[in-house]
Amino acid sequence: MQELNKSYKIVRSKEDVLELMKHIEASDVIAYDTETDSLNMRKGSIVGWSVSGDVGMGYYLPTQVWNPTTQTLDEYMISGTGAHKISKTLLPMLKGKKLVMHNASFDTRFTKNYYGVDLLEDLWVDTALLVHTVYEEGAFGFGNPFGLKSIAIMNQKELGLNAEEDANKEQIELKESIKANGGEITKVNFEIYKADLDILGKYAAADTDLTLRICNLYLERLKEEGLEEFFFEEEVMPIYREVTVPMEEFGVDLDMELLEKTNEEIKADLAANRKIVMESLLKIPEAKNWVIDTSLREFPPNNKGNWAQELVKMFSVNLPKSEKTGKYSLTQKRIEELEEEDCPTNVKNFLLSGDLDHLEANDVLRISTNLWKEKNDGDFINIQSKKHLGEIVFKYIGEEAISKTSKGQDQFDMGMLEVLSKKYDWAENLRVYNKLLKIKSTYVDRFIDGAEDGRYYFYFKQNGTVSGRYGSDAQQLPKPKEEGEDAPIIVRYTNIVRAFLTAGKGRKVIDADYESLEPHCFASVSGDEKLREIFNNNYDFYSTVAIQTEKLEGVSADKSAPNFLKKVDPVKRNQAKAYSLGVAYGMEAYALAMGLMKNQTDDFSSNVTTKGPVKIANRPSRQQVKEAEKIIEGYLNGFPQLKEWRINSREQVKEYGFIKNKVGRIRHLPKVQRV
């Protein structure tokens, strides 16, 4: 591969500053990027920024440099002038330009917060969104499919770069430099700002050059597919500038008082359930036997090492301790010198011989179990250990596993616990404990730990899904549960999560959600009269599907009827959601059966009646797939034009390798296209 020429410069002198100014003035389209000391654009600082107005060129202006001697960031001086002052002069020159950035939300917000220069309105292209528009899967197979380096490597031939080789060299240089300067290079904390200026500057300038090259390449592809208006005017960039970035910048208020109160309550409920589980298990003879056997296996009696140390401690044997290790001296000479008042005779004889006949069985067991408990963080059974629980349940209690691991071993998982919870009180308490633990770690701890002055900042990614829908951690909030869907305590804590988020003082929340938005879309694009009837009659879509597909009697989809399905059996209506959308989108029986099996582990009741053993963790059974086929058949037969639209859509994809929606978004599916 023949590489294009590259010219990267670190701005170090007054002459360099003038050259950078001329470069900005002469360029209409400019790639821009920042280097920072933090991922938090509200609290961190900019250590430098780079621009590129021509392919093969890049300028990096350092504003702070790492001092490895003092372990501090010091302002960079250029010909006696601080680089921050220079930046406040140069950055406004980017206003009015067509700015290109990669993950612009980060760079524009950081620049605005740190220098007071708002570049968002001048953002022309975000290259991550540009790539997503014409190739939704990005650099598939990479850790970050829309990362700058991932995209570059995927297109290195077209870009005229050895991007993969350059990226590897770059990472090696950066990491070595960061480490040499006392910085961390972990995934959690990659302190790039601690790299030597020469290395960091070259890296930063190269990134803007790369951003510009990717922009030029994908603008051509955008034009080829006729998506320029869609990208620049109708959807992608306007929504990003006017909706996405402002949402990320604004954040949301948290009810910190409710959060703290809920945190204390859920900790108490966790402790109560944990105590019940532990005490209940230890009352079961089989579980006690497991503890005994495991303790003796893990810590067999020995007149040396930790076991002997514990024995000496238990009987208060008068032996000296090492100042260095804090352990008793167990040399033969020391033990032989012990008088009877210093050590029981049987203990002395065991320490000398290792013969178990000298010790009482209860003493042996006590020492082994104490050591086991100490190793197990103070518990005889780790109720979070699938290995511990699996051994107790399968090998000692004798329960039959409902699934196997990939290695063919009995598997203890949420599905198995769900089954056991119908039979054992301790299992139900453990099931509740596990769900409470997940709610606490995923939501309560997350908001408390992530709160900044009572606010939380969600991310919103327009390239977070292949379909074009937003990807966001806001969408990870749990769906409210209806009464009866789970244990009351789980329903309570699940439904309180959304109350953590508030409109804030002087504001109100406006709920402008569409009712059954996607089913309305199905009715529109397919022209299905029966689908349209549902909405024209103001019936409930999910209830209609459940009644029609599962042949339910005595219930209605009419929202005003006394026997409205959502009122009399909300669980059954919610279960219909598992297939109401998926089938219309093309879900087949196997995938549906897998989804329904997951519901069996998440809900008290199942919406599929199965015969024979359930294999929740592995693959659906033949019977489950057959029942899923019946569901799909019943659904599609009720909406014949939707069925026809589904078939025609598949044929179009097979013929052309893509499908286009009414507003212009294309979904590329080249692997499906007929060769």
Summarize the structure.
The protein has 675 residues and is an alpha+beta fold. The radius of gyration is 33 Å and the shape is globular.
Could you explain the architecture of this structure?
The chain has 675 residues and is α+β, with helices and mostly antiparallel strands. The protein is 51% helix and 9% strand. The chain contains 28 helices and 17 strands. A six-stranded mixed sheet has the order 1-4-3-2-9-10. A hairpin with a 4-residue loop joins strand 3 (46-52) and strand 4 (57-62). Helix 23 crosses helix 25. The longest helix has 28 residues, at 197-224. The protein is globular and about 95 Å long. It starts with 6 loop residues before the first strand and ends in a 7-residue tail after the last strand. Residues 601-617 have low confidence and may be disordered.
State the helicity in percent bands: 40-55%
Number of strands: 17
Terminal CA distance: 29 Å
* Average pLDDT score: 91
User: How can the largest sheet be summarized?
Assistant: 6 strands, mixed
In order across it, which strands form the biggest sheet? 1-4-3-2-9-10
Output the number of helix runs.
Answer: 28
Proportion of residues in extended strands? 5-15%
| Quaternary form | single chain
